[in-house]
Specification:
- It is a single chain.
- This protein is α/β, with parallel strands linked by helices.
- The chain contains 13 helices and 14 strands.
- The chain has helices at about 35-40, 60-75, 85-100, 115-125, 140-150, 165-180, 200-215, 240, 270-285, 290-300, 305-330, 355-365, 395-415, and strands at about 45, 110, 130-135, 155-160, 165, 185-190, 220, 245-250, 265, 335, 345, 365, 370, 385.
- It has an eight-stranded mixed β-sheet, sandwiched between helices. Strands 10-11-14-13 form a four-stranded antiparallel β-sheet.
- A hairpin with a 2-residue loop joins strand 4 and strand 5 (about 165).
- Helix 4 packs parallel to helix 5 (about 140-150) and helix 6 (about 165-180) runs parallel beside helix 7 (about 200-215).
- It starts with about 30 loop residues before the first helix and ends in a 21-residue tail after the last helix.
- Bound molecules: pyridoxal-5'-phosphate.
- Pyridoxal-5'-phosphate binds near residues 142 and 263.
- One of its GO terms (molecular function) is transaminase activity.
């Protein structure tokens, strides 16, 4: 039978426009998606994406490990598995969490397809449309996208240099209650927040948990970066301080590799049961081969030493970025000093707009993520997130140099004309995740 040549469907016409579920209105593409396509060209230094640099993984050793896996356990590894995740991996996950002080039983762990799916399942089991999620501001763009897709209202809670502000959390929770709304949980990234890089010290964690208990608020602790502490020992996880009030999300994406899509949720028993039901309805079971692969990696390789090697590499990149910012950025620009993770959060001088500036930066062959992506309410126009995880230190330095020239130029124009030249000033907080923008 000869079939006609496939042609690409005309994507301008959508015959189903009146048929979509209302929740699709909460799924928004990023306003800067088109620019990111350009930003991925080799001549552009991209400080935008959050891709881990996994080039130093021992590929030969991994090839041997995975060959052995297929030969000895291939039949189980390629079969359907448990909706909760493979018992062997759940035991390993408990060992990993112990590094941040978490004492947990494998039975309380649910494996997910990355912590992104963990966010999805947690929101699915707790939130009805219109429910409120309290989220530190700024917050991870992918979480905001998930919350939007479940038609939740995100109420932001202010951070200072030590993370979420406890009094602001109390106020937000009480204001919600007074308005007759249900705040289902607090979403926080206590270690090296994406996008700001801010770390919550231990005292702050205690204070926040005290407020959460006082107002009866569940805490969702999202912790993909906790073991990428570049300057000090890991701070005990919030879950290690309270095993009733906290649901903990973890991931192998940053400490091993994101392509396996293996993350997890640690939750009190009743919540865990709901999570497994939600997981079964979403995917039947998390990816089984990936779970076996991650388990074999943890069993056969020196993964702790690999994390130390990753940290040495990220530390050099972080230092290159902070040095270059200090050397090149004009006065009036400020930035965070992350002690770990992947990101630096920059605040531009008054009057500048990072979203409006992005096309000019890309023309100058450097890209970043505008701050508005990390707020559900359109704030963040004076901010940008710079990632130091992927480019080499030399490229980071060059990228920051180019960016500083653009900022300088914008600043001079602003000083000369005093105009708001942004057509999108304070507009459209783009919260939808875009490829390579995590
Ligand atoms: C704070 C945060 N949470 C969750 C994720 C999702 O990670 P993954 O699904 O790869 O585990 C990311 C990815 O960048 C992140 O930064």
């Amino acid at each position: 039978m000869s079939l006609p040549e496939p042609t690409r469907q005309d994507t301008r016409l959508d015959r189903y426009v009146s048929s979509y579920a209302e929740r699709t209105n909460g799924m928004r593409a990023s306003a800067v998606r088109a620019l990111f396509a350009v930003a991925n060209r080799p001549e552009v230094v991209s400080l935008a994406g959050g891709m881990p640099n996994i080039a130093d993984l021992p590929l030969d050793a991994l090839a041997d490990t995975f060959k052995e896996l297929v030969l000895t356990k291939g039949i189980q590894a390629m079969q359907y598995g448990s909706g909760q995740g493979e018992p062997m991996l759940r035991e390993h996950i408990c060992e990993v969490m112990a590094l941040e002080g978490v004492v947990a039983h494998p039975d309380d762990v649910t494996v997910t397809a990355g912590s992104q799916q963990a966010l999805d399942l947690v929101t699915r089991i707790f939130c009805d449309p219109g429910d409120v999620i309290l989220a530190e501001a700024p917050s991870y763009v992918g979480a905001l996208g998930t919350f939007g897709s479940y038609q939740c209202e995100v109420v932001h809670v202010a951070m200072d240099e030590d993370g979420l502000v406890p009094s602001a959390l109390r106020e937000a929770a009480l204001a919600c209650r007074a308005a007759g709304k249900k705040a289902k949980f607090l979403y926080t990234i206590p270690n090296f927040n994406n996008p700001s890089g801010i770390l919550q010290p231990i005292e702050r964690r205690h204070e926040l948990l005290a407020v959460a208990r006082e107002v009866g608020l569940l805490v969702v602790e999202d912790n993909p970066y906790g073991l990428l502490n570049l300057d000090t020992d890991p701070v005990p996880a919030m879950r290690s301080l309270d095993d009733e009030q906290v649901i903990y999300l973890g991931s192998f994406s940053k400490t091993f590799a994101p392509g396996f899509r293996v993350g997890w949720v640690l939750a009190p028993h009743a919540v865990r049961e709901k999570l497994v039901l939600a997981q079964e309805s979403a995917t039947l079971c998390p990816p089984v081969f990936s779970q076996y692969a991650v388990s074999s990696y943890l069993e056969t390789q020196d993964w702790r030493r690999q994390i130390v090697a990753f940290k040495d590499m990220y530390r050099a990149r972080r230092d290159a970025m902070l040095d270059a910012l200090a050397e090149y950025m004009p006065e009036g620009t400020t930035w965070t000093q992350p002690a770990g993770g992947f990101f630096v959060w920059v605040t531009l001088p008054e009057g500048l707009d990072s979203q409006a500036m992005l096309p000019r930066a890309v023309t100058a062959r450097v890209a970043y993520t505008p701050g508005t992506a990390f707020y559900a309410d359109g704030l963040g126009s004076r901010n940008m997130r710079l990632s130091f995880c992927f480019p080499t230190p030399e490229r980071i330095r060059e990228g920051v140099r180019r960016l500083a020239q653009v900022v300088n130029h914008e600043f001079e124009l602003h000083q000369t004309f005093g105009l708001d030249r942004s057509p999108m000033h304070h507009g459209g907080g783009a919260v939808g995740p875009v490829p390579d923008q995590n």
